Amino acid sequence: MMKRWLLTFIAVLALGGLTGCGYNDFQRLDEQSKAAWSEVLNQYQRRADLVPNIVATVKGETQFEQETLTKVVEARARATSIQVTPETLNNPEAFQKFQAAQGELGSALSRLMVVSERYPDLKANQGFRDLRVQLEGTENRITVARNRYIQTIQEYNTLARSFPSNLTAMVFSYGAKPNFTVQNEAQIATPPVVDFNKK
């Protein structure tokens, strides 16, 4: 009788340990992070697909700054040349490289939009205006997709570092996943200098 009670007690303990180990949570969050990452990639691809149309429209403006256009084309080429695989999510170096290339493309496109303000004919071009609206919408979608990814990765990384699920993470080699970072963090952290005495 005592032996049966002991076996039942051990079985209950083992079952309780398995349900509290977090294994299923790791699987769920891993799938969520992959889905969120796919959405980020989808929106980045949407932006990359808009670039040739924007460049073609801007080329119609004969006086437009060629250097700005060249930077956009080069940044797009770099951003689309990076091979993204499922392992990118678990490789901080590859993730950082991808993020840097996408940031460079975003900066080049922002510069193009600022420079285009100097060209009234271009601003009046309905095709360019439509493309600009599409680009702005895509940038907003990128922000939303990145935020969803960030939240999912935060949940996953918290699970990987919390007790007792961190033991499951160690056993199954579930390391923390890289997250998006701000490229110019030091610059953003520096408060702006406001001088009211300047004229």
Termini, distance in Å?
Answer: 93 Å
- Strand portion, in percent? under 5%
Helix/strand order: HHHHHHHH
Q: Poorly predicted ranges (pLDDT <50, ≥5 residues)?
A: 184-199
CATH topology of the domain at 42-179: de novo design (two linked rop proteins)
- The helix content is over 70%
Structural class comes to mainly alpha
CATH top level class name of the domain at 42-179:
Mainly Alpha
Q: Tell me the radius of gyration.
A: 25 Å
CATH architecture of the domain at 42-179: Up-down Bundle
Instruction: Give the integer mean of the pLDDT values.
Output: 83
What is the multimeric organization of the chains shown? single chain
Write the layout of secondary structure elements.
Blueprint: H1 2-19, H2 23-59, H3 66-81, H4 92-116, H5 120-124, H6 126-161, H7 165-172, H8 185-189
Quickly list its features:
single chain, 199 residues, mainly alpha, de novo design (two linked rop proteins), 8 helices, 75% helix, elongated
